[in-house]
Amino acid sequence: xxxxxxxxxxxxxxxxxxxxxxxxxxxxxxxxxxxxxxFIHEARARYLQKFGYSEMDVAGRGTIMTDAVIxxxxxxxxxxxxxxxxTPADFHKYGCDFYxxxxxxxTGHEIARAKTAMVFYDYETxxxxxxxxxxxxxxxxxxxxxxxGSRQ
Length: 152
Fold this sequence. Notes:
The protein is α+β, with helices and mostly antiparallel strands and about 150 residues long. It is about 15% helix and about 35% strand.
């Protein structure tokens, strides 16, 4: 069976830490797959907070997720401290992709890697809107397609 692949940028622009709580563990005793999406959601919110933004107000515009890709690499357990790296990249007219890498701080093992496609969205008209130039300039987009990890 073919597995999904996800190339990560060489450089991440933000790092945060989170603990795996007992409520994040499933019946098999390890980090639940749905909780990984919750962790990356929280990490993205923290990234935006760094600039004084929220997901509902990025330079006056809301955001919405259009897709998510998560690759699970190793198990995480209750009590583990995760380092979560975040960076936006691949900017386009309506938004960008956010990339994530979750690492077990103690062992150094990669727990998961992920990408979410985020677009700017007007919740009153229920339509995508153009990405605010302020956000694009502030976040210094990182390219991923070339594999260079260089700044655009």
